[in-house]
Amino acid sequence: MGTPIPSDPYPNNPKFSDQSAVYIPEIQQHLHKIRHRWISTWNPAVQLGRPTFQLSGLGLAFPLTHLLSLVSRNPFQIYTVLTVVTLSLTGIFFFLFLKVLGLSPLACLTAATGLSLSISNAYWVTFVMFLSTLCWACGLLWLATEFIKKPSWFKATGVSFITYCLLMTGYPQSIVRMGYLIAIQIGVILFEEREYFRRNLWRIIYLFLCFITGAIASLPAYLDLISTAQRSTRLSASDEFFLAALPKFQTIQEFLSFITKLIDPFWWGNPIDPTFPLAFYNGLSLSPLYFGLLIIAFLSPFLWWKKGYWHGLILVCTLATIWPPAYLFAVHYLGFNLSRSWLLGGAVIPAFILCGYGVDILQGQLRNSTLRRYWGLAVGGALLLMTSIQGAIAATSDLQIQWLWAIASWLITAGVIVFIQGSQQWLLITLTVITAFVYSYPLMLVRPVDSIYTQSPLTEAVREQTREGSRFALFGADMVGVMPPNQESLLQLRSIHSYDSLSSRNYQALVAQWSDIGSTVYGRFFHMLDNPEKLRSQAFRLSGVSLLLSRQPLEAEGFQPVGEMNGITLYRTPYLPILRLQTPHYHIDAANQGVLLPPFDRQDASTPVPIEDLDDYRVFQVEPRPQETLLFLSQEYHPFWQATDGHGTALSTVMVNQFYQGVRLPANTEEVVLSFQPWVLWSWVPQVIYGMLGCWFVGQFLYRRFQFTGK
Asked: What is the pTM of this model?
């Protein structure tokens, strides 16, 4: 934020900056009280205004976040609690699911701990929507299986609620992936209990209705998401956009390096470190303990015969990650076109299911020393092969093996081999705990909240210069990252910049008029302005920008310096920005859009006076005119903005200059009321319904318990 970074003892990595750039600011936007409704729906701080993000569990539309907002106003605390609760529930749900499958308590505990504290979860611990997808998918696997075996109203309500939570908190592309996983589990139950086909079919139909009710509960947020997506360019992304995310293999060495990273990525250092030398690492690794258990599961013919669909799913997900045609098939025909990702993520839950079965297989073969010896040789041979590959890579490249990590890998593998020979429960529990501390904990980006800076002299200066509600903008490529886009809500500032995968086509077209580069990655980023000639136009006045931040001199372009710090100069624009305007000088084109006629500051144009100016509710006193006029607002047009006059009569809203919000004012209008009314405002309804059902079930439980105690 324009301030030299002090020495920081805590781990950090810009790859995970979405937490500070998106998630925390969005929670902050929901927490502040500059709104008219119960939930924040409009964010005026970025992108010339846009709807507030509601999914990924970041807003009050998700019940747990809503409850946490009642006891804390600190977005960092709320995000931390969400993360801890999600990881805990992941382990609980997965334990219960494996228990339903008939696994032993030791197998359930080992696999559930491994999944909830996996390398993948630790690596992405700052992305709670990834964790949430895994968590609630495990919950659905458990309750759906329980429901089919023995239905009840409690389980039906639980399936509905967990479906709702999955849709409200999960990453959309990962939700699709987990949907296939849940469908496979349901299909397997139907096949394995085919002698009860008719009974189970009806139960699955009822289960499907529970899924539907959960989806309906999330519908208000998704209707808004659909509206936003239709106005963006993200759904028209090319194949190259998706393929760019896949690992690239130019040589056999790169392919072997990728395979060994799936087992143990720490041989070359801590993957969370920005200097980690291997590219295309996404946190998808098992660790030696769980890789050893997975080998046991893959070497068991009986398990292949009974549970081979999990083996097959792992192989399919791996193939779709390393073979581009398979991935593109999934993108085109299987619903994986929402965002680019590794389909290998779909193998995480199946892998840990098989790890649980691996533990049970070992416990069931205590007397078969020959078979256990072969399994030990297989695990030891796999480690020896991995060591040989890593050594060959180090010998033919500049990479250096981190021997402390390598020794830790050998020791844990040795422990696995010892467990295979004797199946001592204490040893497996010890290895599970050691794996969590050695492999998962170092990956977690955790730090005290007082080490996080949310203010600086630069942000305070910008806030002072834009206190009238105007916006700032960054000028020049050397300013990218000084004040990352989308943090404005947290910093209490306003800008024209964007970090939004679903930014509208109109926004992308507008910023292309102000900048030679414009927005990038299908409108996801708009970092900076770069052409001073474009900033002196009448059209740029409508942006509401009054302040430029630049390391380049702009005095010759007519911009007035008003401050400087750490090599960054603050420049006032040579004109007054237009934040709102009432004018008769406009016309309505054939597309029923308004077009302002320059110059905008004519004598008969006036500035509406704000009576109430909240994020989602704005009331203006306007000058009554004998003819129709146009109210212009320097914010993006959105069809969910509704306008009325002071008497409640509806007014017509229009898009102005192909982007901005406008309202057509009939003659003699004195007051205008604008209210943002998206579908998400109805999200309180499912929260109340599920809350009432929860209270009813708790009451039933307590009643039966007291009744039993009385007897």
From this structure: 0.90
